[in-house]
């Protein structure tokens, strides 16, 4: 694979869009401009990313009517009030239906900006320029946007697809080590769900990824987006297939909830959650113990946790899982593994085995 | 036509939905229940409608987990804060993704409740039970939802289609006379846009409609919904065809803006706006003067205004029209008439004729 590549996410209905992946592509106008319906662009970013990459993005927006909203950094600001502030800015600037909202930042910025775009004048164009590995491999594909509510994460939001994604792996140079590792948890997840070749490639290339070799990063982002796009294209609104993307997430969300959000990064919680899902799969005889060992070894190589923190005892975990919004109408479903690259959504799991696993039996 | 009928709005992708139209159908569980994905229903209504029709609706929801949000009456409350209150209520009640939001009321209630449904957990089921003529013939078809912003009407919102619409013309018994007439303006609009037979039928049946004869009301609602549904099905996101539905609205919105919202009802402003559109069409030689006379006569028979109020002088009207969000990227487009039942969207109108017409030449 060369140091740049383009995928097309197939959604049909004239909504197909490209993901451009490369190093140093942030300012390339020709990648971006064909996807802007008008001349007005509202860049939504945060106070950490703005000084790092706003100037690098500028050439791509030259000659347009450009405004910025610079948010404070952090998930604490992923609220309806923040989105309302973006709507105020759009209206203050007299932005029309043909305006574009461009998210420059990580998943939080993308979720907020995407939701602002989804509901401004009932939907305007949205472009993602993700600057974290997690956002590049996860949040920028799938169309999920939204904000948190005091009573739950991502409770208010919309599905709104971008017109274009620019994933510049050069922006990962400034990403804190811990966030890079957390992003790799999601890359490993795609391997586990449906791509055994990706999993094997990760076993070989983890050192290169941790060293931020650009060619390796481009390949990791491209394989991740390709896998996620395939799942999302088959099931845009998360009725069936798409639930596979939640591998490790029911456990992971429970860990985050028990610890308090923000103590562990999402990717860290998902890593431990994937090991729990794999252990339960082994308990039920669905997964070879050798596969579990490979999974643990790869997560360890990525410097990720492979077990929940001590604070997440069995009772607390089960209670937190019962509140998870992915549990449809009170019925428990989990994503488990029948092999590396072969995840299944099931309600036919052994509840007793689950409780033993969590130490709540 | 019998005193009840059912239309199906064809949207494709498993999103087709029925509009049940009849008298006294509000409490019929068998019309509603097949469209609820789960057992949780949040009824959104207002303090005027609740005492009139909440009890009549109750049998349709028997045995379900039902909650209510009763809003204050009036468009002043069509705000993001009101929608946020509905989200709070949904989360306080622990409502899942399989919950349904049911709007019982007029267009304002429907717009607010629909937007709440659109963005709760990225979209839950929505049912419309419109209790005004305007909502029955207009707002309950097309999927537009949203709220106002201090800087513009309907600036924040989403497209979100209902699973089912129950239009009970018996609820129109309590509708103030003026609101009935304003609703008829939109019925007349459908005739003008694309249905000359409906226009002729209205010329014959206006006295029956004003007397609230149920059979006539069912027929008017059904013909209106059928026309709107046909336009919307062809063009769900308002790129082309759907703009025809704005006949009289660019002028009408300008009248509302100049007078201040709420002085004239929306339908009244649209009535005067349709006459302006017809007059401009005559000026340009597109419409026979005899057709203009029929239009004015029918609107007068419905007790609707056929000219803007004196306060709406030409300069103010033009300025207000320039701000209209239907003007794409600064380019003026208007919906004009080439005959009764034959509206066209055009930017090829005579600007000087327009200014003469508005007295701003």
UniProtKB/TrEMBL annotation, chains A, B:
The entry lists its GO molecular-function terms as:
3-dehydroquinate synthase activity; metal ion binding; nucleotide binding
> What InterPro entries would the database entry show?
Dehydroquinate_synthase (IPR050071), DHQ_synth_AroB (IPR016037), DHQ_synth_fam (IPR030963), DHQS/DOIS_N (IPR030960), DHQS_C (IPR056179)
Enumerate the SUPFAM superfamilies for this protein.
Dehydroquinate synthase-like
Q: What does this protein do?
A: Catalyzes the conversion of 3-deoxy-D-arabino-heptulosonate 7-phosphate (DAHP) to dehydroquinate (DHQ).
EC id:
4.2.3.4
What reaction does this enzyme carry out catalytically?
Answer: 7-phospho-2-dehydro-3-deoxy-D-arabino-heptonate = 3-dehydroquinate + phosphate
Entry's cofactor comment: Binds 1 divalent metal cation per subunit. Can use either Co(2+) or Zn(2+).
Cell compartment(s), UniProt: Cytoplasm
A Gene Ontology biological process in which this protein takes part is: chorismate biosynthetic process
Family from the record: Belongs to the sugar phosphate cyclases superfamily. Dehydroquinate synthase family.
Phylogenetic classification of the source organism: Bacteria, Pseudomonadati, Pseudomonadota, Gammaproteobacteria, Chromatiales
Q: Which organism is it from?
A: Inmirania thermothiophila
What Gene Ontology cellular-component terms does the record carry?
cytoplasm
Would you say which domain of life the source belongs to? Bacteria
**What is this protein's record name?**
3-dehydroquinate synthase
Q: Which CDD domains match?
A: DHQS (cd08195)
């Amino acid at each position: 694979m060369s140091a740049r590549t383009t995928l097309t996410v197939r959604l049909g209905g004239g909504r197909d869009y490209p993901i451009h992946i490369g190093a140093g592509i942030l300012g390339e106008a020709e990648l971006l401009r064909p996807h802007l319906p008008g001349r007005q662009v509202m860049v939504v970013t945060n106070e950490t990313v703005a000084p790092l990459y706003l100037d690098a993005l500028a050439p791509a927006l030259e000659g347009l009517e450009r405004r910025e909203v610079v948010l404070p950094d952090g998930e604490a600001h992923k609220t309806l009030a923040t989105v309302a502030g973006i709507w105020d800015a759009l209206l203050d600037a007299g932005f029309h239906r043909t305006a574009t909202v461009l998210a420059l930042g990580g998943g939080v910025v993308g979720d907020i900006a995407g939701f602002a775009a989804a509901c401004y004048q009932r939907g305007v164009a949205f472009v993602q320029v993700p600057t974290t590995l997690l956002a590049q491999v996860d949040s920028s594909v799938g169309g999920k946007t939204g904000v948190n509510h005091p009573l739950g994460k991502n409770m208010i939001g919309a599905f709104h697809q971008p017109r274009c994604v620019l994933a510049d792996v050069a922006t990962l140079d400034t990403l804190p080590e811990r966030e890079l590792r957390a992003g790799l948890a999601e890359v490993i997840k795609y391997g586990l769900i449906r791509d055994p070749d990706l999993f094997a490639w990760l076993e070989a290339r983890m050192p290169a990824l941790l060293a931020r070799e650009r060619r390796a990063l481009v390949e990791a982002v491209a394989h991740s987006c390709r896998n996620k796009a395939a799942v999302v294209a088959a099931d845009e609104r998360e009725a069936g297939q798409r639930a596979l993307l939640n591998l490790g997430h029911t456990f992971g969300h429970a860990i985050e909830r028990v610890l308090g959000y923000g103590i562990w990064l999402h990717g860290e919680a998902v890593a431990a959650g994937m090991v729990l899902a794999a252990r339960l799969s082994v308990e039920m005889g669905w997964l070879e113990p050798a596969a579990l060992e490979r999974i643990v070894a790869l997560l360890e190589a990525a410097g990720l946790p492979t077990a929940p923190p001590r604070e997440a005892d069995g009772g607390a975990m089960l209670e937190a899982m019962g509140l998870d919004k992915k549990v449809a109408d009170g019925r428990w479903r989990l994503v488990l593994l029948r092999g590396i690259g072969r995840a299944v959504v099931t309600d036919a799991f052994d509840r007793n085995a689950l409780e033993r696993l969590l130490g709540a039996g």
